[in-house]
Amino acid sequence: MEEIKVLKLENGDYEEVFMLMKNLQKKRIENKITDTMIIVEHEEIVTVGPKARREKVLVSNYPTFQTDRGGGITWHGPGQLVIYPIIKWKPEEQSVRKIISRLEDWSISSLRLCGIEAYKNDKMQGIWVDGYKIGSIGLSFLKWVSRHGLSINIDTPGMRVEELEGCGLDAGIHTSLKKLGYDRDLSGRKLDLDRFGRAFIDTCREVLDRNPIFEDNNVLRSNDVAPEK
User: Which fold would CATH assign to domain 2-206?
Assistant: First the structure.
């Protein structure tokens, strides 16, 4: 079974993590590193994908960043778990639709481990609970090494997620698990970002067929962000 390094970042600045992903993707293509799973909680920002730029979608009252993953606009911020799998997908795995479906399955298995029944929607990719979209997936590939990933809205502030028309959906379709009443697991433990992060790590072997490994220095370093010369 392939290994995947777990890298939990303390720095949630989107632009810095964006540059880190690009650098790690390049290193993975060159086989200088193993597969890597980035876990992070971003500072508030709305990322604007190419679809939203083509459609001239306007975003007001939020800081924005023009990103290169697929899709439209996506809110990131406090109370949202974000996981970026920098994975070199094997030849038998190399289908964009299959990879997205696998990340959906990974999310569903992780939420089930926390006592939440999530599901897919045939008309719109992502992760759904009780008729609402609580998770999004957007990827970018180079030589079948993935960049970007998935986000799960756990306890997002105010109506920040609900008021945006993200991913081509009307406002109010996106929400967070806490607003749906999911703030404790079946044993009564609080469902926070750490709990869900552990669930994704625990289900990684079964769903992604990759064995999580940990290193002592799991923090964002300037030499990871800076592009190689």
Answer: BirA Bifunctional Protein; domain 2 (3.30.930)
